[in-house]
Write a structure and sequence with these properties.
CATH class: Alpha Beta
Helix content: 40-55%
Strand content: 15-25%
Strand order of the largest sheet: 3-2-1-4-5-7-6
Bound molecules: S-adenosylmethionine
CATH superfamily: Vaccinia Virus protein VP39
Radius of gyration: 16 Å
Number of domains: 1
Largest sheet: 7 strands, mixed
Number of strands: 7
CATH architecture: 3-Layer(aba) Sandwich
């Protein structure tokens, strides 16, 4: 059996060319609002240097750019996702970096902010990922994590599970031509939510101050951790 790292990379390489379209369609366009809200909560300082990890086709980095962040690096392990991001952005520093989130190849304390939208769930080792965020961040730097979660309210949980398990794999599968990829998404959200406590993992990595926010009936969480 191939390991999670290769499996996830293969999934994103395979759906990359339909990713933006499906993302906006399947979230009814609310994904723009989620990214914008998470970045607003981050409160970037003037002169921020941002690394957007698991940047995919770059929508989080592009939203940060629109909010005035000038120096932005994008990093992802999927070559196809990065290729699409490069087409959208001639301003990005270093033409984007192909790397795994668990081993960020930047010098210690080189950025003021790290963002990751809908990526942490896919990391093959979240703790190593957060350790590597901690190393790359300067003192007082912030990591902003935007991620799905299962809502605690039982009504919204039922609606969410129905949508994620019954609708999303079918529509995503037909349009992307990769049903497995879009069955992976709901599975990964559910497994992730049951087993993973993100604030705790961030604390283990050394982050001192951790804020959590909940968006859209609790289906999305924003966590901001300060070094
Ligand atoms: C759901 S997409 C999110 C993309 C983008 N952040 C957004 O908001 O649209 C998840 C991305 O995480 C990347 N990814 C997953 N695990 C990774 C890892 N361990 N290291 C680097 N990138 C990873 C995938 O290649 C994919 O582009």
């Amino acid at each position: 059996m191939i390991d999670k790292k290769h499996q996830v990379r293969q999934i994103f390489d395979s759906i990359a060319f339909r990713y933006d379209f499906l993302n906006h369609l399947l979230s009814f366009g609310i994904d723009h609002y989620w990214r914008h809200a998470a970045l607003k909560l981050t409160k970037f300082q003037a002169g921020a240097v941002l690394l957007d990890v698991a940047c995919g086709t770059g929508d989080f980095a592009i939203a940060a750019k629109k909010m005035g962040v000038k120096t932005i690096y994008g990093a992802d392990f999927s070559h196809n996702m990065l290729k699409l991001f490069n087409k959208k952005s001639d301003w990005i520093v270093g033409n984007n970096i192909q790397m795994v989130a668990e081993k960020i190849p930047l010098k210690k304390e080189s950025v003021t902010n790290i963002t990751v939208a809908f990526g942490v769930r896919n990391f093959y080792n979240i703790q190593e990922g957060f350790n590597s965020f901690f190393n790359a961040l300067k003192k007082n730097g912030k990591a902003t994590v935007l991620e799905f979660r299962l809502p605690s309210n039982s009504f919204f949980k039922a609606v969410y599970k129905f949508y994620f398990k019954k609708i999303l794999p079918v529509v995503g599968g037909i349009i992307s031509g990769d049903k497995e990829a879009y069955s992976y998404l709901p599975r990964s959200v559910e497994e992730f939510d049951e087993k993973i406590n993100l604030p705790e993992l961030l604390k283990n990595s050394g982050f001192e101050k951790i804020e959590t926010h909940s968006l859209t009936f609790g289906i999305v969480q924003v966590i901001i951790a300060t070094k």
